[in-house]
C-alpha cells in the first residue's frame, strides 16, 4: 500500500507536508525522531514546511496510529513508526543511544502484576536507563 492510500485509510488527506513527513520516518537512519529532528531534515532538504506544521502532523499521525510517541530522559517527545509490535527501550544516559528490545517473560509479568492489582491493562511503557557498552567498555556484559 502506498503512503497516499495509507493516509486516506486513516482518514487523513494526503497533503504534501503529511507525505513528506511520513517519508522522512520511512527513510530515517534513526528510528526515533523528535519534531526538531524532522524539522532539521526538512531544512536540510530545502523543503518549506514550518515547525508548527511538523508538530501538528506528528500529533495527527499519533492520533491516527501511524506513529507512537515516547518520552525519554529529559521529557523530550520522540516518535517512531507504529509497526504494531510492542517493544521496550534501553537508553544510554551518556550518549542517548536507544536500543529496542522485546521480552515475552517481562510482558507476561507486567500483565500478571496489573491483574493481581485489579487493573485492566490498556498500555505500558518500559524505559531502562544505563550506560551502553560504547560509553563504558568496563560495564559491557560479558
UniProtKB/TrEMBL annotation:
User: What is the first-listed, main subcellular location in coarse terms?
Assistant: cytoplasm
**Cofactor mode of binding and number, as noted:** Binds 1 zinc ion per subunit.
Q: Give GO terms for biological process.
A: negative regulation of DNA-templated transcription; negative regulation of siderophore biosynthetic process
A molecular function GO annotation: transcription cis-regulatory region binding
Any one GO CC term of this protein is: protein-DNA complex
The protein's required cofactors: Zn(2+); Mn(2+); Fe(2+)
Q: Where in the cell is it found?
A: Cytoplasm
Positions that bind Zn(2+): 92, 95, 132, 135
Q: Does the keyword rRNA-binding apply?
A: no
Going by the UniProt record, its keywords in alphabetical order are: Cytoplasm, DNA-binding, Iron, Metal-binding, Repressor, Transcription, Transcription regulation, Zinc
* Assembly: Homodimer.
What is stated as this protein's family in its record? Belongs to the Fur family.
Q: What does this protein do?
A: Acts as a global negative controlling element, employing Fe(2+) as a cofactor to bind the operator of the repressed genes.
Which protein are we looking at? Answer: Ferric uptake regulation protein
Organism, scientific name: Parapusillimonas granuli
What broad taxonomic lineage does this protein's source fall under?
Answer: Bacteria, Pseudomonadati, Pseudomonadota, Betaproteobacteria, Burkholderiales
- Report which gene this protein is encoded by: fur
Amino acid at each position: 500500500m502506498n503512503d497516499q492510500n495509507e493516509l486516506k485509510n486513516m482518514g487523513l488527506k494526503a497533503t504534501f507536508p503529511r507525505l513528506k513527513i511520513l517519508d522522512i520516518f520511512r527513510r530515517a537512519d534513526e528510528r526515533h525522531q523528535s519534531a526538531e529532528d524532522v524539522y532539521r531534515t526538512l531544512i536540510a532538504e530545502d523543503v518549506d514546511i514550518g515547525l508548527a506544521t511538523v508538530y501538528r502532523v506528528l500529533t495527527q499521525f499519533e492520533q491516527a496510529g501511524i506513529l507512537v510517541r515516547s518520552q525519554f530522559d529529559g521529557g523530550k517527545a520522540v516518535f517512531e513508526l507504529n509497526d504494531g509490535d510492542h517493544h521496550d527501550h534501553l537508553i544510554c544516559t551518556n550518549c542517548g543511544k536507544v536500543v529496542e528490545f522485546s521480552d515475552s517473560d517481562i510482558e507476561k509479568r507486567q500483565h500478571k502484576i496489573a491483574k493481581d492489582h485489579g487493573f485492566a491493562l490498556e498500555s505500558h511503557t518500559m524505559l531502562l536507563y544505563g550506560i551502553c557498552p560504547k560509553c563504558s567498555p568496563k560495564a559491557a556484559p560479558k
